[in-house]
Amino acid sequence: MISIFLSQLSALGIPSEKLPSDELNTKLESGEPSFTIDVQPDNDPTYLITLYYTTPNYTIPGDTLPPCLTQLVGTLYDPVTNDIDKCHPFLVKDGRSEFSVSQVKNLLAGRCVAHCFRQHTPFGYDKWYHLDFETRGPENAYRLVTTRFSVNHYIQKVLALYPIIEMEDPAYPPIILEALAAGERIQIQLREGKQITPKLIQLHPAGRIRFNRTDKASATFDIQHKKAELLCPTDKTSETLA
After folding, report:
1. 1-19, pLDDT tens digit by residue?
2. pTM of the model
């Protein structure tokens, strides 16, 4: 039985060396109707996920059902104070979550995550997800905002406007698009005159791509209108890459 539970956690993106095998086995053997397990899915000490297991409220004659994974709560801690910075629950159904543990972390960090539905069909479409940290819902959770948007189409159009070295190699655009859609922040090389400057790019809520300089100044580029908006106007090291 334990192998089934561990395979579900692996499907969530928890590395094998981080799987709570012993703790989960102990909890299952104890016969507790519900329990929680904390897991640090990567090497970031500020990120923690809590797995909630609950026994189904229905029964099968002659059989006892084990607890099921019903919820995953992601928590980001402040690296200085160690207080909770962001925390949000994600529903798990039949052992499956809509988001992997890395995508949960990216959502809590304020980035967008995109999913493609009906891929490779004429009816394919994308959805963007991000957490609205200004609005609280039931149980004090953030509001998960969903926007139907052709992510790849607009990202390619915007990135093509800038002299990004990696985009010159046909092998790199699909990798960059996949990483951005997963909510990752990735480093690229940008030509600026005779110089090549490393920058970090990420998907931003409201249909935008954010470029971050290595000195942490940043500018946001609106995908739909191709208009640069400076996020740090008081920072003399900030610049618009239009």
Report:
1. 678 888 889 989 998 889 8
2. 0.77
